[in-house]
Each structure stands twice: as structure tokens, then as C-alpha cells.
């Protein structure tokens, strides 16, 4: 500071000059100093902080911070749901339309500043910042009817409650610097600060930069009286209210509350008397008897960067508190909770409703962290959980993004409540993205579940989940079944590391769960994934460090099987693919695909496969057996066992057996075998049967043959023709392809003789085996032996003929070759297929053969 000489000494000229010179020098030095600092200021990169520069009633810092958070909120909330009300909320009562809801709030804040007609300090009206005198009357005088900026000094003001009318901006010097404390004589029902008219409502109120001490020790100790009373700051029926950088201390009920005048609202339009457009920003709270921040029957609520810790829980019976850091309660809608921190609470962030009231909806929780709360994040609608309770019609649409649950613990505030990182009950349409749960590996979680989806919750999508450190918990994630089971739960892109004994557990009766792209890991765990049935879709899940990677439907797996229902493993209600390259499709009955590249398709009755590349398809209780088998199949069969590589079989029987095969296709031999009738649908024309030659030699195709006893030879002139040696048979009988023809004993009419056997307490009949049958003797099928011939008996056949035969003739045999019948009897020649060749000694005719020739 420059101090000049004001009165010069006029008696001596030399002294006058010296004083004048001294003053001029001081002025010059000061001007030079100012010029130096001004230039330094101009050149400095940090001349002013963004907080020191005004921009339309806001600091540059607040504008930039607002823009940053708006962009972040825009990115994080691009799911497209519930936009109609948000669009509508951008229109003011005056019909003004804003591009963004945040811009409307800012405009309303600007209107508040413009409405302010007085800028006063409460001390000028007799308020005492020393905390000695009661300042209630001074506040009333200073506030008047509103339209005032009320400035508070540093210090403590003793009041009996401050009531703020519309268009009031009350600002202190900061948290812990300016404090409002309730007077000793203040009733227990009072607030430290609230709006003046709860019934008609108020608007445009700002409280900023102070601490609010409810002083529960007054009168020897007081507690909450119920309802919306006994809080530090309550907005009731307020439109456009802001509490910024305000601290709530030891309220009987809540630190901060945005509410309707009553908690008991039965009206269909349950938010009509609640608050709208409320912003709790950078607020802190502790010692609250119930919740730190809460909202009831209100909408468009913004709770940002708030810190709520260590409640007293005194609004509840001892050991039964539900004191939460941030609570979105009955009837609230369109709530944003952003970048908040909670610690020491029963529940860090809770979205809940009581049985008789609607549940909060369209709630967005972003960037919040819970530290050592009992339950970090809890969504529930009480009274709508159990099987005999009604479904909630309002518990809908909650989003959690980038939230962290750190070290949930037991707490004496609520004795017996298990610590959990996340709980969803009764809510539907829940989106959880990038959720992190961090446990203390040394803490005794007493075998509890850390994340629970339960109590009739539905349509829960979890994408991007990180968990670790819950070494002494029982289960990391439990999708709870039973009569009040949850369902439609989708968990993807998850990593569970060094955590509970069981990674993910699915309950009974839960049918629609998807687990995709994740890993569960621990040391000495029990199972990575457990489920009592095969209903869950599981894709690309890995489990490490467990006795069993998965225990599903009673089967233990060394890996977590890819399990897809409704289109792959597909459309199957049961069954166990026990190899990582096996599959079960469209099957029931507990089948098992035991080998690599094995498949059960459309099976029932516990069908199984072994070996490699084995298939059972469209069959009941049929099996491929043999660990060394390759490419064996059973198709369209009942109780058939295939034990031969490179074969496909069909069959039918009463108990599983290889003898129940009826048809076999041998890919290696290129042969087809069958035990029953075959109907040809090609141009093969005749019905044939195997007959043995009289001399044991081979008879060539096309010769007419006759019976000699029960054997055949070439037919001679005048002999009755049995048939023709055929290569065109559509049906061939008597092949005995699979076993010795006399393997089973028969009665005098050729029927099988059966015997009764009892196995596993069950009585059934089987063909009686011939005592002469030796299964150790290798059997050669008839088609592989020269003495056995396929004789066409009925139908169109090719016959050797001589030069006398023409189309339309009848033929009779001559040493096995057909010749023209002079009597017009015999086989009818349909056409000449090949003319007579003298060198070959025969031609070929297409002839119709029938019985009785």
C-alpha cells in the first residue's frame, strides 16, 4: 500500500521539495510496479482459474464441467428408453422449448438470479455467526418474501429452522465454514432448511455452500417424528430446487429429501404434488437416522457427486435399520445418480418401494462407488417378492453403468443382513454395464452370495462384469430358483478372479439364462458353474481352479460345456454332452454323448454314444457302444445297439441289443443288409428269395430254374419253373445276413420259440437261442457263398432265350433257356431286350413271371 504525505511543510522550501520528491518517487514506483504486474498477468498462463471467470451467471469452470458431464451422460444413456417424458420436460410452463433438459435447468437457475431484487447479508439483520444468539428472526427478516440472494458469513448460526420462499438463493462460505444448527428448543419434527409452502409448493430455490446440523442432542436427545419431517434439508413440492455443496449432519431422518408433502399418496397421478427438477450436487452427509439422500413421489431428480457415509440408523429399531446412502424411494421417476460415494451404510444405493406404493422407475445410476456398505446396490419392491405376493407392475427400467461395489461387510445397523455387492429383486428391465465388485480376500463373508438375482426379477442384462477378492464367500453370482425364481438373466463378458468357492450358481426352475464370454477363477473352489438342469445357454465360458469346472444336471465336467438351447444343443430339455466336441440336439430323456465329435439328434429314452464320430438320430433308447468305434450310427430305431465301425443301422426291439438290428448299411463294404421285406421304388421289378443249388455250384443269371427237393437246378423241358436267377430283385428274402439262420429255435410251423428272463427286476421275453449256435464261429452271409442264389419268383425279370422267341410269345424251359411254347402256355415275353446271339448261344427277353407257371 502506498502512503503519501498529505500535508507538506511550508516553512522550509528545501523540506517541501524533499517531501514532494518523495511522494513523486512513491507514485512512480507504484505505477511501475503495477505496469510490471499487469504485463506479467497478461503473459501468465494461469492468470485466472476457470472458477474465477464469470460466464452468464456461471463460472467458466461450472459451464465446462457441466458440458463434460452432459456429454458423458449422453454417451452412457443411449439405450433409447423412456425418452418421451424427458422430451416433454424440456418444455417450460411458458411454452419455451429447450434442446436439452440440462439447459432448461440452467435457464431456470439464470431466471432465479434475474428475479433476485435484493442482495443482503443476514448479519445486517441481526444474525449472529458466533453461535451464541438465536438467529431465526434475523433470517426471516432477511429473506422476507423471497427474490433475494441471502449471504451468510463464516461461522455458526443457531436457528429454529429456515423456511425459504420461491426465488431464494441462500449461500454460505462453504461446507464447514458456514453452519446452520438447530436451536435447543427446536421441536423434533423441524428441518434445518425447507421450502416455505409444502402445500402450494415453491420454485427456484438454491441452497449453497454450508453445513446443516440437525443437532439431535438438543433437549437431552431427540429423534425423527416420522413422515417427511426431521431432516436437514427437505424440498417438498418444489420445482427447480438446487442444493450445491451442502453438508447434512446427524438428522433424525434424512440429510436431503426431495418429496411430496406426504409419503402416503394413493392418487393415480402420484407425482403431481412431488418435486420436479431437483439437483443435489456435491453434497455430503453423515449420522443420518434413515437415509443420506432420498426422493419420494418426485421426478427429474439429479443426484451428482454426493458423499454419504456412516449413518446412525436411529430412525429404526436397534439392529433393524435400513439406513442408506442414496435411496430412490416410493413413486419416484426419472432419477439420475451420478458419481456418488457411499460408505458404512446398510445399503449404499437403494432403489425401492414399500408394498402399497408404486416402485421407482427409469432410474439411472452411473459412476457410483460403495465402500463397506452391507449391500452396495440393491433394487427391490417390498411385498412383491414371494410366490404368493402380486407381481410388481411398476418396478421397471433401472440402469447401472460403471459402478463399483468395494468390500461389502456385515454391519450392526442391520443384524443378520448378508453383505452383497448387488441385489435385484422384483425389478424387470434392468441393464447393468461395466460393474465391478471388489472384495477383501481376508474378510469372512461366511459363505454368502455376493451378487443375487432373485424374487421374481426378470429381463436382467449384465454386460461387462469384474469380480475378485471374495475368497471366503460361498457363491459369486447366484440366480435364485424356486417358486419365486428369477429368470431371463443374461450375463456376458465377465471375469471372476480369485473369488468364491462357486463362481456362478443357477437355481432350480430357472429356464432362461445366458452365460457368454467369461471366466471364473479361484483357488481350491468347488465349481465354476452349477445348475440343476441343462436349461441355461452357455457359450465360451472357462473355469479355472475348481474341483469341477461345471456341475450341470448332476454331471461333472472338467470344462464348462458350450450349452445352447433353442436352436443348438439345441431345443433339448435334458442330456449331457460329455466331450468338448459332442452335441445334443432336439432330445430329451437324459441322453449322453460320451465321445469326441459325437451327436444325439432327436433322441429319447437315454440314448448314448461312445467312440468317435458316432451318431444316434431319431431313436429311442438306442446306443453306439465301443470306445474304439469310428463312424457308427443308429437311425430311426428303438432299443438298438450298434457296435460296428463305418456302419449305419436301423432296428427295433424291446431291450437294447445288437440283435435288434433290422437294416445295416456298411460304408466300408458298400453293402446293404436287412431282415425284413424291402419294397423297391426304382425300376427293379421282381420279388426274390435265396435258394441253394443242388450241386453246390453257381448258376449264372437269366437261367430258368426248378426245385429239386428244397434246392434248385436249371429247368428242363416239361418241368415246372420256380423262377429265374435274378440281378434285378427289389426284395430279396432268406439272406440270413447278420447271423446263422438257425441261431434261434423255432416250432414246427417255423415260428420263434421265446423264453422269459428277469433283469433288473423286470420280466421280458427273448427268442430262445439254439444250443448249437456258437457265436465264436465266424459267420459268412449267403451272398458271399457260390451255392446260394437270388431267384426271382414274381415280377418282371430278364431271361435267357433261344432264336425261336419273339415279343408276345410264351416260353417254356429247355435246359434253363427259354424257348417258344407251341401250346401258348408258360412265361409271357413282354419284349426282346437283346437279340439272339449265335456265338453266345442266347438272347435276352424281358418276361413277366408269376406263381403257378
Automatic annotation (TrEMBL):
Signal peptide: none annotated. InterPro entries: PbH1 (IPR006626), Pectin_lyas_fold (IPR012334), Pectin_lyase_fold/virulence (IPR011050), Peptidase_G2 (IPR021865), RHGA/B-epi-like_pectate_lyase (IPR024535). Residues 120-202 form the Rhamnogalacturonase A/B/Epimerase-like pectate lyase domain. Pfam families: Pect-lyase_RHGA_epim, Peptidase_G2. It comes from the Bacteria. Residues 632-849 form the Peptidase G2 IMC autoproteolytic cleavage domain. This is Peptidase G2 autoproteolytic cleavage domain-containing protein. It comes from Bacillus changyiensis.
Amino acid at each position: 500500500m502506498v502512503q503519501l504525505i498529505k500535508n507538506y511543510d511550508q516553512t522550509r522550501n528545501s523540506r517541501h521539495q524533499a517531501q514532494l520528491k518523495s511522494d513523486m518517487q512513491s507514485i512512480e514506483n507504484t505505477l511501475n510496479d503495477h505496469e510490471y504486474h499487469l504485463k506479467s498477468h497478461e503473459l501468465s498462463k494461469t492468470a485466472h482459474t476457470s472458477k474465477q471467470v464469470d460466464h452468464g451467471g456461471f463460472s467458466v469452470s461450472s459451464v465446462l464441467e457441466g458440458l463434460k458431464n452432459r456429454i458423458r451422460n449422453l454417451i452412457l444413456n443411449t439405450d433409447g428408453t423412456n425418452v418421451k417424458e424427458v422430451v416433454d420436460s424440456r418444455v417450460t410452463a411458458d411454452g419455451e422449448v429447450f434442446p436439452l433438459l440440462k439447459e432448461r435447468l440452467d435457464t431456470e437457475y439464470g431466471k432465479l438470479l434475474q428475479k433476485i431484487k435484493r442482495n443482503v447479508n443476514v448479519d445486517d439483520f441481526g444474525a449472529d455467526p458466533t453461535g451464541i444468539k438465536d438467529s431465526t428472526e434475523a433470517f426471516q427478516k432477511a429473506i422476507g418474501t423471497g427474490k433475494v440472494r441471502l449471504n451468510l458469513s463464516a461461522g455458526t448460526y443457531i436457528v429454529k429452522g429456515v423456511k425459504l420462499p420461491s426465488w431464494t438463493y441462500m449461500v454460505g462460505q462453504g461446507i464447514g465454514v458456514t453452519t446452520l444448527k438447530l436451536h435447543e428448543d427446536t421441536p423434533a419434527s423441524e428441518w434445518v432448511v425447507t421450502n416455505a409452502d409444502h402445500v402450494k409448493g415453491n420454485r427456484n430455490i438454491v441452497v449453497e455452500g454450508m453445513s446443516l446440523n440437525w443437532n439431535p442432542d438438543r433437549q437431552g436427545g431427540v429423534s425423527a417424528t416420522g413422515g417427511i419431517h426431521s431432516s436437514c434439508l427437505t424440498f417438498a413440492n418444489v420445482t427447480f430446487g438446487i442444493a450445491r455443496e451442502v453438508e447434512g449432519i446427524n438428522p433424525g431422518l434424512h440429510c436431503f429429501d426431495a418429496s411430496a408433502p406426504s409419503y402416503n399418496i394413493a392418487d393415480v397421478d402420484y407425482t403431481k404434488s412431488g418435486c420436479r427438477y431437483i439437483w443435489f450436487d456435491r453434497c455430503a452427509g453423515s449420522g443420518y437416522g434413515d437415509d443420506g439422500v432420498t426422493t419420494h413421489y418426485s421426478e427429474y431428480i439429479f443426484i451428482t457427486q454426493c458423499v454419504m457415509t456412516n449413518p446412525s440408523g436411529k430412525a429404526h429399531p436397534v439392529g433393524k435399520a435400513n439406513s442408506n446412502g442414496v435411496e430412490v424411494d416410493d413413486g419416484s421417476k426419472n432419477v439420475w445418480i451420478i458419481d456418488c460415494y457411499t460408505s458404512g451404510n446398510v445399503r449404499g444405493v437403494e432403489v425401492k418401494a414399500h408394498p402399497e406404493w408404486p416402485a421407482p422407475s427409469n432410474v439411472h445410476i452411473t459412476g457410483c462407488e460403495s465402500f463397506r456398505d452391507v449391500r452396495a446396490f440393491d433394487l427391490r419392491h417390498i411385498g412383491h417378492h414371494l410366490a404368493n405376493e402380486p407381481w410388481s407392475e411398476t418396478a421397471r427400467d433401472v440402469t447401472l453403468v460403471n459402478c463399483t461395489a468395494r468390500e461389502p461387510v456385515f454391519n450392526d445397523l442391520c443384524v443378520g443382513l448378508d453383505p452383497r455387492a448387488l441385489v435385484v429383486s422384483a425389478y424387470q428391465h434392468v441393464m447393468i454395464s461395466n460393474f465391478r465388485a471388489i472384495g477383501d480376500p481376508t474378510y469372512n463373508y461366511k459363505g454368502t452370495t455376493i451378487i443375487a438375482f432373485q424374487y421374481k426379477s426378470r429381463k436382467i442384462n449384465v454386460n461387462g462384469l469384474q469380480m475378485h477378492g471374495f475368497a471366503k464367500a460361498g457363491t459369486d453370482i447366484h440366480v435364485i430358483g424356486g417358486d419365486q425364481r428369477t429368470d431371463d438373466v443374461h450375463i456376458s463378458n465377465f471375469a471372476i478372479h480369485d473369488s468364491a468357492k462357486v463362481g456362478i450358481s443357477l437355481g432350480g426352475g430357472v429356464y432362461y439364462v445366458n452365460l457368454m464370454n467369461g471366466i471364473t477363477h479361484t483357488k481350491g473352489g468347488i465349481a465354476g458353474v452349477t445348475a440343476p438342469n441343462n436349461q441355461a445357454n452357455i457359450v465360451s465360458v472357462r473355469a479355472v481352479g475348481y474341483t469341477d469346472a461345471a456341475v450341470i444336471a448332476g454331471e461333472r465336467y472338467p470344462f464348462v460345456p458350450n450349452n445352447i438351447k433353442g436352436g443348438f444343443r439345441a431345443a433339448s430339455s435334458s442330456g449331457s454332452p460329455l466331450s468338448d466336441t459332442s452335441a445334443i440336439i432336439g432330445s430329451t430323456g437324459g441322453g449322453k454323448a460320451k465321445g469326441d465329435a459325437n451327436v444325439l439328434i432327436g433322441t429319447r429314452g437315454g440314448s448314448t454314444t461312445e467312440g468317435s464320430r458316432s451318431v444316434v438320430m431319431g431313436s429311442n433308447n438306442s446306443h453306439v457302444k465301443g470306445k474304439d468305434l469310428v463312424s457308427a450310427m443308429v437311425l430311426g430305431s428303438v432299443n438298438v445297439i450298434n457296435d460296428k465301425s463305418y456302419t449305419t443301422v436301423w432296428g427295433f426291439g424291446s431291450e437294447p441289443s445288437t440283435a435288434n438290428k433290422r437294416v445295416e448299411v456298411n460304408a466300408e463294404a458298400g453293402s446293404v443288409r436287412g431282415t425284413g421285406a424291402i419294397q423297391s421304388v426304382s425300376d427293379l421289378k421282381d420279388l426274390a428269395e435265396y435258394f441253394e443249388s443242388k450241386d453246390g455250384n453257381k448258376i449264372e443269371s437269366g437261367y430258368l430254374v426248378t426245385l429239386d427237393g428244397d434246392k434248385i437246378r436249371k429247368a428242363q423241358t416239361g418241368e415246372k419253373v420256380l423262377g429265374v436267377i435274378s440281378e434285378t430283385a427289389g426284395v430279396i428274402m432268406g439272406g440270413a445276413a447278420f447271423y446263422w439262420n438257425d441261431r434261434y429255435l423255432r416250432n414246427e410251423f417255423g415260428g420263434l420259440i421265446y423264453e422269459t428272463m428277469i433283469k433288473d427286476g423286470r420280466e421280458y421275453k427273448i427268442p430262445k437261442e439254439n444250443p448249437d449256435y456258437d457265436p465264436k464261429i465266424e459267420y459268412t452271409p449267403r451272398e458271399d457263398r457260390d451255392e446260394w442264389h437270388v431267384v426271382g419268383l414274381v415280377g418282371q425279370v430278364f431271361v435267357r432265350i433261344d432264336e425261336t422267341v419273339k415279343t408276345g410269345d410264351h416260353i417254356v424251359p429247355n435246359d434253363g433257356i427259354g424257348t417258344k411254347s407251341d401250346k401258348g402256355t408258360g412265361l409271357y415275353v413282354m419284349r426282346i431286350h437283346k437279340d439272339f446271339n449265335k456265338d453266345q448261344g442266347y438272347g435276352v427277353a424281358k418276361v413277366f413271371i408269376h406263381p403257378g407257371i
